[in-house]
Amino acid sequence: MDLGGGMSLKGIPNSVEVGFLTLLESLNLCKVGQYLKCPKWPIWVVGSESHYTVVFALNPNVQEENELEERESKIRRAFDAQDQSGGGGFITVEGFQQVLRDTDINFPSDKLEDLCNAGIIVWSEFWQALLQLDKRAGGMKDPTGLMGKKQFTIYHFNGIAKSVLNGNANIGGSSPIQRPRLCKLNVTVPPRWTQDEYLADVVSASTSGSKDDSVLSLAPPVQTSQHAPLVDCIRTRWPRAVCSWAGDVPSIV
Fold first, then answer.
1. Average pLDDT of 29-50?
2. Is the Cβ–Cβ distance between 102 and 74 less than 8 Å?
3. How many CB atoms lie within 10 A of CB 229?
4. Contacts for 182 with CB less than 8 Å, ≥ 6 apart
5. Which pLDDT score is estimated for 215?
6. Rounded Cα–Cα distance for residues 123 and 77 (Å)
7. DSSP code for 63
8. Which intervals hold domain Deubiquitinating enzyme MINDY-3/4 conserved (predicted)?
9. How far apart are CA 120 and CA 83, in angstroms?
């Protein structure tokens, strides 16, 4: 990011062993780079308004990307390299032309004109256009439909004592105790569809009661989506992630 006066702000220049995620990115107040989001080990320090907690996975495969995910990462890096807004998610037409050259993307002339019409290119609009552009033209549209839903488990640890019910809350005499909290989260990252298509699919799956063995053999059924500020942090690493957990809401404060 060019700060003017010959001063520029840069991210972490090399890969790291432990990563970092922050709630501030979900609020669009800063941007964490790919090296911190994709560390050597599946461990992330999570920053909130008040203190730090930790997210980790026992299986390092949560870091692996399929072919289309790697393609998306490459395109996003090229886009971010031209983004002088400090992570605002938009670039100039000149920067956009450089992104297309760097990533071998070939839009039809009418779509290219539409994207450039406003004088700036917003990432969300660019991404939607890529979803409709065939892979052979450098886009993300996959006619096979094998765009790779991922399901995995991560854990969140908050070392600051939180109130946890001692035993069953329905039994008389239960009293709250104070202890650090470890929470197990089931995470589902949908395929590279548009958000509307994914939400429609989740609703349809939850109401149909499908027993499709081909789905069940790959992963457990989709969990009901739950939300907390921690989920916003997780989505800065895995966009569109759906999270679920048992018991108290995981707290990052």
1. 92
2. no
3. 18
4. 155, 156, 157
5. 33
6. 12
7. G
8. 1-125
9. 11
The position carrying tokens 């969140």 is 156
Residue 98, SS3 per DSSP: helix
CA dihedral 135, 199, 149, 46 (to 10 degrees): 110
The pLDDT tens digits of the residues spanning 190-238 come to 765 544 454 444 444 444 444 333 333 333 344 456 889 999 999 999 9
Identify which of 154, 186, 161 has the alpha carbon closest to the alpha carbon of residue 51. Answer: 161
DSSP, collapsed to helix, strand or coil, labels residue 27 as coil
Q: How far apart are CA 65 and CA 92, in angstroms?
A: 29
Q: Give Dmax over CA atoms of the chain in angstroms.
A: 71
Tokens at residue 13, please?
Answer: 């220049």
Entry pTM:
0.60
Q: Is residue 220 within 8 Å of residue 146, measured between CB atoms?
A: no
Q: Please report where in the chains the tokens 């520029």 appear, as a residue.
A: 8
Q: Which structure tokens are listed for 100? A: 């297309």
26 vs 199, which has greater pLDDT? 26
Q: What digits encode the pLDDT tens for the residues 129-158? A: 998 898 888 888 866 555 567 889 999 999
Residue 6 CA, distance from chain mean position: 33
What's the length of the chain?
253
Helix (H, G, I), strand (E, B) or coil at 62: helix
Q: What mean pLDDT value characterizes the chain?
A: 80
Distance CA 72, CA 79 (A): 10
Report whether 83 contacts 91 (CB < 8 A).
yes
